[in-house]
Amino acid sequence: MTETAALPGFAGRTYLFQVDNGAAFRNAYSADGRRLRWEGLGESAGQWEDVALHVAQVGPQVYFVSWTEQSGITVSHVMDLAALTVRVFWTYEGEGGRVGELHTGTLEQLA
């Protein structure tokens, strides 16, 4: 579900998303900006999922993007398309309960 009325700036584009912890993903956004197919790279190679997005534009070329994966992982990005940076918060089940991690990352437009 998309909360923005206008087409998001990332719609129809594909990015290499490199996270500060060494993880990397190929993120391909649908033409309407409502879905994401992420593919893990490096240690996460072979992992992928097609997910529905929740999107809100929070500034010029800045988007809050969130989704829930089948595994129960939740991911929330603040994407700055002008600076090609991302702040990401994800949560997952860990020992003793839910774990949350805050990371930064960079984007490189591939297509």
UniProtKB/TrEMBL annotation:
Ranges for domain MoaF-like come to: 11-94
Annotated Pfam families: MoaF_like
Question: What Gene3D superfamilies would the database entry show?
Answer: 2.40.128.20
Q: What is this protein called?
A: MoaF-like domain-containing protein
